[in-house]
Task: structure prediction
Amino acid sequence: MNLRQLRYFVAVCDEQHFRRAAEKLNVSQPPLSQQIKELELELGVRLLERSNRAVELTPEGSLFLRRARAILDSVEEARHEMHNYSATGGGINIGYMSAAMASSLPPILSALREDSRGAITFKLRQLDPESQLRSVARGELDVGFASFSARPAPISIDDKFLVIERAWQERLKVALPHGHPLAGKTVISLDQLNDEKLIIMARNPLPGFFDQVISLCYNAGVAMNIVYEATQMPEVMTMVAAGYGISFVPERSSMLWERQLALIPLSQSPTTDVSVMYRADNTSPVLTRFKQLLKKIYADGPSEN
Result:
């Protein structure tokens, strides 16, 4: 069985006539008829009932017609995808930690869409940091975004080398439940948070945000009682809003939670990194352009409200 036989068969079914199908395909009728006969022999069923006036499908032919159309549609879709890939480099699959973090992606996605005149496709997936690392290593994601620190050299994940570099910086804010005594402040100093219960992003799978927060408190001489380690930023926000403790959160990534809890700037104005990860051997032209635009758009440093 081959694609030519499928196209001939579908054309005959559409026209309900061998001669008209041959004219539509711009081929002579004998080869077309021969291809249909060979297809029937290979399948071991009669697909068409022939007469001098018209062609009718057998029950087996009706069933096979649906299969043939699906195969030809799939081939056409693959051809279209490959055409786009050769012209633009294809698409890009992007991972991110939370809906709040995703709110930082529209500027880069918009720039890439305009740069490619809409030819590049995007797929976004919300995953925790460890799942992103594995997915990038397996090639399921082209890039991922997470709140851990950049690395001076690629790291090995599942025998694949991943590059982790800073995507942008964000100022840290203190997240407090609305009933907290400091919730009405316009700015908070670290020493006002001594002995508070702390909800924090877990250190695994890579250090970064966790170590930064702990170092920030330690250097300020502030003792914190860690009561919960989360794998996702929404976990942190939910626990804070419920009154289980306070947290330090990235400014841009916490904006969607402004109604549910209090987000207060720190007088020390500390910042944190959001890193982008990708496989070192990924040579996709779309990824290359994505990284270029990312650096251009977020080259100005911490986010501003």
